[in-house]
Structures are given as structure tokens and as C-alpha cells.
């Protein structure tokens, strides 16, 4: 676990590990969970900008990675289609797409998002534009792209991140050419949101045929 963490934060992260051990008991060993906690802490907790939130973010990030790993390994059953959105900073396009999939599918499609070079925070204009259509992104945060979330996905959609996403056979890959909302005004972000929404509704219709 990184030395950058103060003793109190370290204690909270250890409690997060204990919670995951209880949740995944009989599925993953303590060693596997400890490794994921350490890796996730390294990926998220090495930055002072999130240090105060490290225990919460590490728990959420490690939990999602463990679920993806279990799905990829066949030890956790997939109950829904799995979609992964990847952009560069995971602060705009991919976050909007993930939020829109949750909205348009009514929670019947499980969605993840990640960035090849995660930003510091979600674009405030993106948060505002999504709030306008009833999607609360207050608890979302940029996440780095990891191998297991790609392996667990049925559909992988990239948005301007080039070759950063590994390719696995048997998966559906798409690249959505969309403007980057970074440093754009709210009206432009709304337009990008609506373009993503059109694509998301088509995707959800394909994944959840009536």
C-alpha cells in the first residue's frame, strides 16, 4: 500500500479490504483481494487530489474490478449485457455515455467506463448537462482503464483513445467519433450529450430487443 497514505486513511482502506473479503468470500482468496486493493490504491491513491476520498474510491474501484475479473474468469455469472466505454480522460464522453446507458436501459444493461489517461475530475459542464436530463453524476469519478474490465465486456466502445484499449476476440468493438467536451461551453456539451444519447438508444435497443 502506498506510503503516501496517512495512518488514518490507511486504516480505512484496510477496512475496505475487509468488506470486500466478506462480499467475495468463497470466490476470491484474501491474497487476490489484497492485490486488487493495493493496485487500486496505487492507481487512485497516489494522487493528492483524491487522497481524502481514497478509502471510498478504492473500495468502489476495487469492487468493480473484482466483479469484472470474476465475470471474465467465469466465477461470477453475468446477469446483464456488459458495456464498456473508453475515452482519454474518462471525464466527459465516456461518463456521459455510461450515465445515458443506465438511464435508457432502466438499469438492465451493466455499464462501466474508463480512461486511457484519466483526468482529475469530471467536467463540471458534463455534470450540469447530465443533471438536466435527470442523471446524477455527483458520485462518479475518472477511472483508469484496466485489463479485466475489457475482458468482462460484451461491447467495448472507444471515443478518441486510439489504440489504448486491448483487443480480445469474440467482443464487439465500436469507435464513436465525437467531439471532446473538454473546455467547451454548456451549449456545446449539450449537443455532444444529445449525439451520444442517440447512439446509446440505438445500442440499448440492440442489446435489449423488445
Mean pLDDT: 90
Which CATH architecture of the largest domain is right?
Answer: 3-Layer(aba) Sandwich
Low-confidence stretches: none
Distance between the termini: 47 Å
Strand residue content = 5-15%
What is the CATH class designation of the largest domain?
Alpha Beta
Assign an overall shape. Answer: globular
Helix fraction, binned, reads 40-55%
> What does the radius of gyration come to?
17 Å
The named CATH superfamily of the largest domain: Response regulator
Overall strand count: 4
Question: How does this model look, in words?
Answer:
The chain has 210 residues and is an alpha/beta fold. The chain folds into two domains: 7-73, Helicase, Ruva Protein, domain 3 (Orthogonal Bundle); 82-207, Rossmann fold. It contains seven helices and four strands; from the N terminus they run αααβαβααββα. It has helices spanning 7-23, 30-45, 54-73, 93-105, 124-131, 147-152, 186-207, and strands spanning 82-87, 110-115, 155-159, 172-175. The protein has a four-stranded parallel β-sheet with strand order 2-1-3-4. It is globular.
Amino acid at each position: 500500500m502506498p506510503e503516501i497514505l496517512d495512518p488514518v486513511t490507511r486504516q480505512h482502506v484496510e477496512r475496505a479490504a475487509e468488506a470486500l473479503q466478506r462480499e467475495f468470500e468463497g470466490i476470491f482468496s484474501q491474497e487476490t483481494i489484497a492485490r486488487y486493493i493495493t493496485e487500486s490504491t496505487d492507481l487512485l491513491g497516489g494522487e493528492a487530489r483524491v487522497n481524502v476520498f481514497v478509502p471510498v474510491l478504492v473500495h468502489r474501484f476495487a469492487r468493480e474490478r473484482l466483479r469484472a475479473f470474476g465475470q471474465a474468469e467465469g466465477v461470477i455469472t453475468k446477469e446483464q449485457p456488459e458495456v464498456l466505454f473508453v475515452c482519454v480522460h474518462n471525464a466527459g464522453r465516456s461518463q456521459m455515455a455510461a450515465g445515458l446507458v443506465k438511464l435508457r436501459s432502466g438499469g438492465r444493461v451493466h455499464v462501466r467506463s474508463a480512461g486511457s489517461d484519466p483526468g482529475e475530475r469530471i467536467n463540471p459542464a458534463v455534470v450540469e448537462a447530465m443533471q438536466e436530463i435527470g442523471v446524477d453524476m455527483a458520485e462518479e469519478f475518472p477511472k483508469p482503464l484496466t485489463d479485466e474490465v475489457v475482458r468482462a465486456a460484451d461491447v467495448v466502445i472507444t471515443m478518441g483513445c486510439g489504440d489504448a484499449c486491448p483487443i480480445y476476440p469474440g467482443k464487439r468493438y465500436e469507435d464513436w467519433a465525437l467531439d471532446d467536451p473538454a473546455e467547451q461551453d454548456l451549449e456545446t456539451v449539450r449537443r455532444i450529450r444529445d449525439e451520444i444519447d442517440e447512439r446509446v438508444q440505438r445500442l440499448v435497443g440492440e442489446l435489449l430487443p423488445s
